[in-house]
Design brief:
Order of helices and strands: HHHHHHHHHHHHHHHHH
CATH topology: Growth Hormone, Chain: A
Number of strands: 0
CATH class: Mainly Alpha
Number of domains: 1
Strand content: under 5%
Shape: globular
Amino acid sequence: MSKINKNVVMLGLVSYFTDFASAMITPILPIFVVTVLHEGMDKLGLIVAVATFISYGLRVVSGYIADRFGLVKPLVVGGYVLSAISKPLFGFAHDYISVGLLRSAERFGKGVRAAPKDLLISHYTHKDNSGKTFGFHKTLDLAGELSGALFLFLMLYWFGQSESVIRNVFFATFIPGAIGVFIVLFVVKDIDKSQETKQNLSLKLTQNDKRTISQLLFYFLFAMFALDSAYFAMQAKSIGISTLIIPLLFIVSTTAQSFTSYYFGLLSDKIGVKKVMGFSYVSGVLAQFFLYLQTPIFTWIAYGFLGLFTVISLNANRALIAKNADNRGVVFGIFYACVALFGAVGAYVFGLVWQHYGMSLALTLSFASTIIITLLFFVRGNFR
């Protein structure tokens, strides 16, 4: 803990409050779209696909700008401001188009800040401790998600699950969002441009950059075929789990992430990325398997494995880039852009399958595909 830079800690607090606000929305937004606004699963799939593409696709642009011009903190601040403003506006949404636009704006903010934020963390991190540092940062991120989901559960428990309550929860996200903006604006320090920009003026991808990107292919494929958390929420609702309880499912996922993020960050430094990634893929497959069983008790277990896959794979990939890439901002951006493309395609396709052919087929396709990708990873994956 003593070796983690203060600036990383402050960025962790920014993430805490921002993800507190996000977790007040994420568990119930799919239900709000489908059951309150009476839109179909195909419309939900479209919302998830567009938001995913914007959130991740924009990161290659922001990563390029951060590397090329040394414009790091302004992008981070702007991204957090946009997300903080857009979240409360969900309270005014009345159809899937307005939800989609607001979700896209909120994800636009995340896309603007994500790659520069990773670059900022990398700047204040020794390469030998990159897994540890990203694991620590993600732990504070997850603590915010846990707190926000718990707050959401208490609001639904005390005040009910009516449309007006849900809208008021959306409005309340302004408070934690504003706190996060204050910290990043007035407390977080920018990079030392005299060092960072000189290192990154040449943006031609090096052999190290290309090798690092090629090692991420299995993750891109997995991101396409693994079901988004929005589908996890709708599966829970479809098998009889009430809206009140769904935030608790997200708490299960977030708790699993919180207790493992820092530890597996350390492991990626000690035993290598491939072993840690392999464990994350097995966890992802188990998440799809238990969801496929369509039984409430197994859905709870599925959320636990979803949490393991999410945090372990993300931290391992970020550590891999931080250790091996030369143009880290650009490679972080490419990483997120590919997740955008593959994830958006998968989200849209699974929404169509779910709407027109049923939940069972969507769950089956996801489970079978992730098994195949995981087996290929163990046979063909070649990590440094």
